[in-house]
Amino acid sequence: MLNFARGRSQARPNRSMPIAVMEYADPKRKSNMFGKLLMAAALTALCIIMLKLSPSFSTPTHFSRHEKGVTHVLVTGGAGYIGSHAALRLLKESYRVTIVDNLSRGNIGAVKVLQELFPEPGKLQFIYADLGDPNAVDKIFSENAFDAVIHFAAVAYVGESTTDPLKYYHNITSNTLMVLKSMAAHGVGTLIYSSTCATYGEPEKMPITEETPQASCKTWINA
Ligand SMILES: NC(=O)c1ccc[n+]([C@@H]2O[C@H](COP(=O)([O-])OP(=O)(O)OC[C@H]3O[C@@H](n4cnc5c(N)ncnc54)[C@H](O)[C@@H]3O)[C@@H](O)[C@H]2O)c1
């Protein structure tokens, strides 16, 4: 036989006990809570710092946003001979200019002169980068709002192009495709491409026009 009486005879737990415990200000619990809050604040601060340091998080600059009435031109190879003169002309005509150059052949001195002539914020910035590096090119286009590109970055010696043609295919053909790909991805629709009149050799008739026949130097023409 089951003994029901035994169960009933046991003292019932005091139901009001948990409430009494909650109301009691436990200093250990309080300090636990404070520790948790402190930890949460520290983690939030850490996240903010990491976000700020991350390449995809950058404070907007003149160069990173389109501005009404201002045309922002990316001048590749702008530390070089033709590129630096083109940049000077653009700056004089109130364009916003970003020069990208790996300084393999160009001269940083030319960029410094331009920076001294046009020190106002949002006029000129120089980015040291190689157009053969897809991540660098993509980063440049992601972080800047270009309206147009003038593409001068190249290797441009006729003799060298025949002795080291792969260098020319790589730096001219392949790197130009990289620039075009980034332009398309970031909606930049205007390109001025600096070719070379060397492809025409020594023409019989001047001036050189689009109809002038190309000379027979194959590397120049192909690259
Ligand atoms: N010099 C001329 O008379 C002339 C005339 C017409 C057209 N062009 C053409 O204009 C272009 C530039 O000629 P230039 O005489 O100014 O040459 P340059 O060597 O003085 O300038 C080329 C610039 O491009 C940079 N560069 C090269 N490869 C790069 C890369 N992978 N990434 C980033 N920067 C890079 C170099 O450091 C250099 O500053 C060439 O395509 C050339 O054929 C030159």
UniProtKB/TrEMBL annotation:
Residues 73-216 form the NAD-dependent epimerase/dehydratase domain. Pfam families: Epimerase. Gene3D superfamilies: NAD(P)-binding Rossmann-like Domain. Belongs to the NAD(P)-dependent epimerase/dehydratase family. This is NAD-dependent epimerase/dehydratase domain-containing protein. It comes from Gossypium klotzschianum.
